[in-house]
Amino acid sequence: MKERGKSGKPSVDERYTQWKSLVPVLYDWLANHNLVWPSLSCRWGPQQETATYKNRQRLYLSEQTDGSVPNTLVIANCEVVKPRVAAAEHISQFNEEARSPFVKKYKTIIHPGEVNRIRELPQNSKIVATHTDSPDVLIWDVESQPNRHAVLGAAESRPDLILTGHQDNAEFALAMCPTEPFVLSGGKDKSVVLWSIHDHITASATDSGSGKSPASASKSGGDKAPDSLAVGPRGVYQGHEDTVEDVQFCPSSAQEFCSVGDDSCLILWDARAGTSPATKVEKAHNADLHCVDWNPHDENLILTGSADNSVRMYDRRNLVSNGVGSPIYKFEGHKAAVLCVQWSPDKASVFGSAAEDGLLNVWDHEKVCIFCYCLSFLL
């Protein structure tokens, strides 16, 4: 157990110990699955099956190894019990070293490099995109890809598509469009790049190969698979002065999207108006911006998270093209850089934030409004 700091505040280990003791009263149900290797990215996929007492849910996760075996993209199926079904004795037996029977590995893909980010395509539940330490975005059909064994010396799996267009590594900024099969990425080349997965049909027509995807060819044509099909971008958008750290589509438009970066800027783009920023907030935070999310219930609200330890909420109606824009709220509950922000899929006012302080905070900005009104009334 680590000692407390000079401030007397609990250490990360102490907070974790406290959380473990509270697990039976915090959650209705908990499945804990101990992994062999660290995971840099983890995402829920589509629901696979609905039963009387539980649902089967697809789960995507990465395994970052030490080089003794290859890095992998793992597709798993999770059995998630329905509300008011979980048994109290199950959650009381929580053990962080256990491997849950509710999590079953379905398929392993040997990934060319570590998996920094995973995103799923809403229009096709079989398609996922990954970012690694390279300029390219890799597209995988998880159903047609062969199951692989991650052993030393094993050949890398072939992605079904490779999206090209970045001039430097693109490691983290990745998004899929809710309305069209579009992919968005940002990277160290300071650019935001947009693709349509449908463009591979045109590329396939001019390809001299058999027309089969690399995955299907590798299953039917022996050990050697052909090179993956490369697809160029629909547009490359310039406006950042440093690495683009995160990107996000407008929930109702494939042509509108936003990005944040290490230049402290929040930029809104409209592909219909060209490749220059539609709106650029030049000092959205007091440090690098790590993450952004667009409210799926209220398209005027955008969240940003930063190395200045804060989360800020912007109303795009208040933003103007001359670089000015003030947040409508600042949320300052974290003690370290904010790495992730995400709106709730169920309630428009609720969102979560996670930071390097090891905390996951859940916020409701409507309650912030009520508190501020009451405080001003009292004053």
From TrEMBL:
Question: Which SMART domains does the protein's record reference?
Answer: WD40 (SM00320)
Q: For the region Disordered, what residue ranges are annotated?
A: 204-236
Write down the InterPro entries for this protein, in alphabetical order. Histone-bd_RBBP4-like_N (IPR022052), WD40/YVTN_repeat-like_dom_sf (IPR015943), WD40_repeat_dom_sf (IPR036322), WD40_rpt (IPR001680), WD_repeat_RBAP46/RBAP48/MSI1 (IPR050459)
**Domain Histone-binding protein RBBP4-like N-terminal positions:** 14-81
What biological-process GO terms show up in the record? Answer: chromatin organization
Family stated for the protein in its record: Belongs to the WD repeat RBAP46/RBAP48/MSI1 family.
- Name of this chain's protein: Histone-binding protein RBBP4-like N-terminal domain-containing protein
